[in-house]
Each structure stands twice: as structure tokens, then as C-alpha cells.
UniProtKB/TrEMBL annotation:
Signal peptide (UniProt feature, chain positions): none
UniProt KW Signal keyword: yes
Name assigned to this protein: Polysaccharide deacetylase family protein
Keywords annotated in UniProt: Signal
């Protein structure tokens, strides 16, 4: 070997030997800082308040209506939130952390307003990939990062409730939810939730441009008669249908909300986590 290279290697090894203890010290320091930040975050957020169990028991033998909305689109805040608020109702948003504050999506401030108003913020994974297309390890990471983001922003109430992006999941997904102690997960499969609950495969009624409001009212009446549960799902709120056919006319949404309000003595209008509390799913 060339003598000059030998000298260079010797110098590099000497420098690494000198620097290594400081590198380890720095790594240890950063670990301690991260742990301190996590502890500070836990202290800042505080515990989730317990709900009144007596009130929960009074609601057990009624039909349930749950308004969920996927992705965190800004129109969910600007158009749907005022409609529900006017009737004293709350919803549940499936949040994509990587979309928060970007064009067309809600800001962190808007999410804070919803959460402090009693709305649920659920785990729609960190970056909204088709879970069934991912390995089990990558699925677990997507779900875990989504839950961690929610918890770190003090949105703990529903961070362990998953909503599958694109409705995509497989047996690996179900196993992860069980292993990681998630409370429930909602699909995009159309239907009314019967009393025989599969907690990781909860169906929904998707409110789309083609959805007939009179048909929706019939489904609400059916749920009341059978004491079952309807989980509604919305995406964007706009009058005109878009190419994806995932938006819903705010006027039609208001008509549905008004109908639910007219039946409020016969049913419960809940967030997703409140529904699970009534069901005793923890």
C-alpha cells in the first residue's frame, strides 16, 4: 500500500478515536432531550377526561348516528362544522398529518378548534397510502406515526381509532390493530352497523353526489326501528360534483342533519369515540 495512504488512514482512525466519545455523548444527550420533550408533551396534554358513565348507560338502548369525515379537507371546517354546530352536534375527522396546513386541507388551528369543541380526530395513517399494498412493517409504521402525531398534538381522544385510506386493508392490517390495541377501525364498505360489531371492519354510509337524501332518511328511520348504528362518511363539501365524485352538496348535508335533529329523542348523535364508550370498547 502507498505510504501516503497509510498515513491518511492512520490520521482518520486517530481522529475517529478522539471524536467517538463525544459522538456517543451527543447521541445520549439528544436521546435525553427527546425523552424530556416527550415527557413535557405528556404533561402539557394531560389526561383524557372521563365521560359520565351514567349518561352512557342511558344511551345504550337507542340507535346511533355518527358523522365522520375523511382526510381533513378545509370545507369540512368551513361548511360542515357550522351546520353541525348550529344543531349542537359534533363530528369525527380522519386526519392525514402530512396534509395538515397544505392547500385544500385544514390548518392546525382549525383542528384545534374542532377538538376543543368536542370533535374526534382519528388516525387516517401518516401519509395516506393503500395499506393493503404495503408490507406489514410499513403498515405498522404508517399507523404508528399517525397515532404518534395525534398524541403529540394533544389529540388523544381518538388517536387509537383507525380509518383505512381508500378503504384498503388486509389481514396484516387487522393483526396490527389487534396487536397494537386499537379500539376500532372504519371501512368504506356501505351498510348500517348491526349490533354484531366487528370492531375493525365497521361499515359506513358514504354521502356522495349521487346519494338520494330521501333514501338516507329511510336508512335513519330503519336504524331507529332496529336500534342500530349509522356511520356517515363525507369528504369535500361542494355543490358541484367533481371528477372523483367524492364531494357532497352542503345543502343536502344540512337537510340530513336537520332530519337527524328532528329525530334526536329517538337516537344518539355521537362522535366515534363516544359510540365506543357506550359499547364498552376500550
Amino acid at each position: 500500500m502507498d505510504k501516503k495512504l497509510v498515513i491518511v488512514y492512520a490520521i482518520l482512525i486517530s481522529l475517529f478515536t478522539i471524536a467517538y466519545p463525544f459522538m456517543k455523548s451527543s447521541e445520549s444527550y439528544l436521546t435525553e432531550v427527546n425523552q424530556d420533550n416527550e415527557l413535557d408533551q405528556k404533561i402539557k396534554c394531560g389526561p383524557i377526561p372521563d365521560r359520565n358513565l351514567q349518561d352512557m348507560k342511558k344511551k345504550q338502548n337507542k340507535a346511533n348516528i355518527i358523522f365522520t369525515m375523511d382526510d381533513g379537507w378545509d370545507t369540512q371546517y368551513t361548511k360542515a362544522f357550522p351546520i353541525l354546530k348550529e344543531k349542537g352536534m359534533k363530528g369525527s375527522i380522519a386526519v392525514i398529518p402530512t396534509k395538515v396546513g397544505t392547500s385544500g386541507y385544514m390548518s392546525l388551528s382549525q383542528l384545534n378548534t374542532l377538538y376543543s369543541s368536542g370533535w374526534d380526530l382519528m388516525n387516517h395513517t401518516y401519509s395516506h397510502h393503500h395499506l393493503a399494498h404495503l408490507s406489514k412493517q410499513k403498515q405498522k409504521k404508517e399507523l404508528s406515526q399517525g397515532r404518534t402525531w395525534l398524541n403529540n398534538h394533544c389529540y388523544k381522544r381518538a388517536s387509537d381509532i383507525a380509518v383505512y385510506p381508500y378503504g384498503s386493508y388486509n389481514q396484516d392490517t387487522l393483526n396490527i390493530l389487534q396487536e397494537e390495541h386499537y379500539r376500532s377501525a372504519r371501512t368504506v364498505i356501505d351498510g348500517i352497523q348491526s349490533n354484531n360489531l366487528k370492531k375493525y371492519e365497521v361499515p359506513t354510509i358514504n354521502l356522495l353526489p349521487s346519494t338520494n337524501v330521501e333514501w338516507v332518511k329511510e336508512q335513519i328511520d330503519m336504524a331507529i326501528q332496529t336500534k342500530q348504528t349509522i356511520v356517515f362518511t363525507n369528504h369535500r363539501f361542494d355543490k358541484e360534483a367533481d371528477a372523483a365524485q367524492m364531494n357532497f352538496d352542503p345543502a343536502k348535508f344540512k337537510e340530513i342533519v336537520n332530519y337527524v335533529d328532528s329525530k334526536k329523542d329517538q337516537l344518539n348523535i355521537l362522535t366515534y369515540s363516544e359510540w365506543l364508550d357506550i359499547k364498552g370498547i376500550h
